[in-house]
Amino acid sequence: MKQFSEAIEYAQSHEVPWPRDPAAEPARWGVHHDDPPPFNRLRGPVHPRGGVSGVIRLNGEEVAAWGEPDRADLTFSVAKTYLALLAGVAHMRGMLDPDERVVERLPGIGFDSPHNRAITWAHLLEQTSEWEGTCLGMPDQVEHNRRVSHDPKPPTGKKGERRELHEPGTHWEYNDVRINQLSLALLHLFRRPLPEVFLETILRPLGGGENFRWAGYDDAWVEIDGKRMQSVPGGTHWGAGVSISARDQARIGQLLLDGGVHAGTQLVPREWVQRMQQPGEVAPFYGWLTWLNRDGRMFADASRDSWFMVGAGGHYTWIDPENGLVAVVRWIDPARSPGFVTRVANALR
User: What are the start and end residues of every segment in region (Disordered) (predicted)?
Assistant: First the structure.
């Protein structure tokens, strides 16, 4: 732990400037405030958070932990990568082909229009689907022209202002409504609540899952095979989402570093994990619901084969194959995240 003491001290001294209790100062907590009304509100449960915490693993072993590494906290868009893992499980079971059009297996859930019929699973995973419609009460337009911190493209219009849609697969946009549509599609594919599938196929085999929760919006219920199920979002943009510990996040990062294998069992196909970290043609800074560092623009001091799960509020899971590293840091001020990465990289040297 001493090796990384400077990085840990730096993280702990630069906590994200959000209140720890979302009910205390709601105007300073979350990202939904940036949305046009009436969509600038929470639609699902949230809860108080802990302080800055994290875990570092080297060559498969935990070498450092700080804060409350076993506390299950909301993790925002890190949950997107968990959807990609579930899609990988479905692929391993022969339930989806990434290049297959979603409508071919799932008619009647929002992929039937002439525009949406062309959308493949790969388009959804790389955020180039340009899906058009309303998912669980949220129109895709809410996220038009959205720009997030690691997106190198300049904004082209005001957030929520309608823009002309492109052919699926030709335009990248970070769009949480479309991610929620992917989650809804996976729910219909598995025909079981996704939190149950994720615990059963990923977290519990890794030895984790304590206090894990993946909640949906209050009104996000559907009926499948006569059973009422809640569709869960790929983040906490409008509340709900994944609550998970830093140690469990590190376990998931280790699984990806190890090519989807844990204790000799292939939990996610190796080729799927490899594809998750390959740059897309339209957005070479992005893989399958992961962020890439191929040109060093994301983090200059991280190795170029590093890849990341990222969530609002200062959540990062860093996977560095070159150094056998998995580093998780939570609730750090995002503006200070490069400083944390630099200090970890220096310690590795």
Answer: 15-34, 142-167
Domain ranges (residues) in the chain? 2-92+189-348
Q: Which residue has the tokens 């899952």?
A: 209
User: What pTM was computed for the model?
Assistant: 0.98
What string of pLDDT tens digits covers the 349 residues of the chain? 689 999 999 999 999 999 999 999 999 999 999 999 999 999 999 999 999 999 999 999 999 999 999 999 999 999 999 999 999 999 999 999 999 999 999 999 999 999 999 999 999 999 999 999 999 999 999 999 998 988 888 778 889 999 999 999 999 999 999 999 999 999 999 999 999 999 999 999 999 999 999 999 999 999 999 999 999 999 999 999 999 999 999 999 999 999 999 999 999 999 999 999 999 999 999 999 999 999 999 999 999 999 999 999 999 999 999 999 999 999 999 999 999 999 999 999 8
CATH architecture entry for 2-92+189-348 = 3-Layer(aba) Sandwich (3.40)
Integer distance in angstroms from the first to the last C-alpha of the chain?
15
